[in-house]
Amino acid sequence: MTSSHMFRGPFQWLSALPLLAVTGILTVMAIMTLTSAQSPEARSREVLFDYFQRMAPAEYDASEKFHLVLIDRESVEAVGPWPWPRTVLASLVDATAEAGARGVILTEPVDKPDPLSPETIGRFWLEGASDDALAEQLSRLPRTDVVLARAFSKTKGAVAVSLTPPGNPNQPSAMQRADAKDAGWLNITDSGADYIALPGARYLYGLNPELSRAAQPAVAALATDPDGVFRRAPLLWSLDGKPAPSIALKAAQLALGDNAITAKVNLNAANPQGRVLKAISLSGGAFAISPQSAVRLYLPKRLNIPTTSAARLLAGAGSNSQLSGAVVLIGLDGDLGETIRTPRGEMPLVELHALAAAQITAAAMPKRPGWTGYLEALGVMVFGAAAIMIAQRMQFWQAVGFAAAVSVVLVLAAYSAFSLGGLLVNPLAPSLALFVGALSVAGGKSIGGVLRDDSVRGSFHDTLPEPAMKKLREESGGDILEGVNRDITVLACELRFPDEDLHGMENIPGEVTKLMAAASLDLRQTIIDTGGVADQAEGGRIFAYYNTPTELADHVQAGCAAALRMIESMDKINTDLEASSVTRGMQLHLAIGVATGPCFAGPMGHGRNNRYSAMGPAVDRAAFLRNQSEYYGPAMICDEPVYKQTHHLFAYLELDKIRTRNAERPFCIFALIGNPFIKSSKGFRDLDEAHREMLIAYRAGKAERARELLDKTKKSPGAKIALFDIYEERVRKLSEQGAPEDWDGVHEAGA
């Protein structure tokens, strides 16, 4: 079994497991999307549709056919506090009719007794009083409802009733039976549909018979969605078992000539209360309605319905010709009366009735047919499945970006469908399916990758760099553990305490092992962070390999840079040792040998004892150079190939030319001193030049010249290392004994 299959197999199921869960989630989402397609309780969808309406408002002009007569503060200051006697309202209706209004609608409900009617005063307020005669005379005065009825008999109009319905008209449970057989103002296209199902409404107390004959009762109820925003306006109601129009529908009927309203029955739907309507036709303009006989509110760009104060009409000031030919709605303004939230903000009830009426006359209805729910449910499954398939080839954040990009396209497409064709399609459910599909699969892959990473890292003792782990997470990346034979750069590192320090730490063995463990961990992390493989050997020895298992173009440079970072980390560790009262005065030394050349590298072991290691001449040479550090003094010693490839980047000092038993010829070794900043400094250049001249003189057998140059070199900054003591001893011997006949200045390693 290859290494790639060894570690991929146990965690393969983690990539497949989310598919089972996400398929179930998408199915549930599709069902919920279908069943709630027309429900007003889908708040996120409704809010999105509100934004669509703000960005693409309706094109109709609400000021052409309607006019508002507002009962405002000026009016109550002139007449008295609200509520007014209905005789005053009758005067207001008369003044409106005389101004040439096409029709008048009183939007303040009149289905409860007038508290200022003489009848009410005589019956209730003076009951039990000593002056029974006065009470009787008051009760005989004309009823204010009758006076209001006489005013409406002179014009076409309607009065508001049922401000608060008994149930939520947007819910099927609120539907009641309405007998449309005797409703002359309403034509039902199906001759057998005398009983229709409409949202229920009721009189608060009742309506004066004369008033109900003079003005058609119109339902004033405006029910909001669960979030408190008014979006749906029922146009037909069941009022005491009879169909009744809403104020908006009645106002639109008056504006279009007071012709009969035609309602079309949905032959494919039924309700226990009667037949369900699906469309309304008014003076040739037809539009669809919901099973609750409602239309979605769609406000124009300009909310500019003209208004006139009721005080002006009652004062008889001017001709009031602005009312001529308009349907006039009378009601309280936003300061004195209630307001209601809409997608365009708060507005008084009378204004909302007028805007809804203008929308009906223009037949400007957003369309959300029943098939949109099926389309959205299908979109959940299709886009969810597409996300699953595509996310198989992506990393986590790529999958998130893909889902976000496609979601933006879906929202823009939905907005285009609304702005161009008035069609409301919800893109949120398919967009959510995209994220569910993409994130579930990509997240599962990430979890599987993390666990597989943990297994691989555990097997290799936290040795592999992130580029290698990234490839291992991919299905095609397991071959990186098959082993390679290529040029690599090897760092042979060893942590050790000087013998004298170890003797002083005999009583704190726990501290010694903790310090070595912490320092080893720091070195391994530095190796991994710089793109190398960390191979823990015995004791404090660690090998680092660059250019394996993934290829690294500048692996020699990366190895040298890593060695310098290790020395920096040792300086920090030794600073901490000095700061501790237990370890003060002790130093942890790091020796590093750096070599490059062809090696075999790959997993060497089995199971949890597996380790990524390397073997070859470069490994042996790096270990040899590491062992020379104690002799020469510098912590980092490199071979000649490393020096030749990086001497233009880093500061080096040539240490020696040595001969070993295994080498065919002598070779030079070099101390890695520092980074490019040190290399370019004047102090290092002077030291390097003097040291180089000293080596030339020494290898030429010129002892006196070598001594002069060595003295010059030792005066340079940074020359306090064992290397120059070594050469001082060698020059002394050369001076005393002279150079042998075969002298070449080569040092016999181990001699």
Question: What this model shows, in words?
Answer:
Helix 6 (118-125) runs antiparallel to helix 7 (132-140), helix 14 runs antiparallel to helix 15 and helix 23 runs antiparallel to helix 24 (703-714). Helix content is 45%, strand content 21%. Residues 1-11 have low confidence and may be disordered. It is rod-shaped and about 150 Å long. 42% of the residues are buried. The protein has 751 residues and is α/β, with parallel strands linked by helices. Strands 19, 20, 21, 22, 23, 24, 25, 26 and 27 form a nine-stranded mixed beta sheet that branches. A six-stranded parallel beta sheet has the order 7-3-2-16-1-15, with helices on both faces. Strands 4-6-9-10 form a four-stranded mixed beta sheet.
Please render the helix and strand layout as text.
Blueprint: H1 3-8, H2 12-35, H3 43-55, E1 66-71, H4 73-79, H5 86-98, E2 103-106, H6 118-125, H7 132-140, H8 144-152, E3 157-161, E4 175-179, E5 186-188, E6 195-201, H9 209-214, E7 216-219, E8 232-234, E9 236-239, E10 242-245, H10 247-255, E11 261-271, E12 274-282, E13 285-288, E14 294-296, E15 307-309, H11 310-315, E16 327-332, E17 339-342, E18 345-348, H12 349-362, H13 371-391, H14 396-421, H15 428-459, H16 466-473, E19 484-496, H17 499-504, H18 509-529, E20 533-536, E21 541-546, H19 555-579, E22 589-603, E23 612-615, H20 617-632, E24 636-639, H21 640-646, E25 651-659, E26 667-674, H22 676-679, H23 682-699, H24 703-714, H25 722-737, E27 747-748
Helix pairs in contact: 2-13, 2-15, 5-8, 6-7, 10-12, 13-15, 14-15, 18-19, 23-24, 24-25
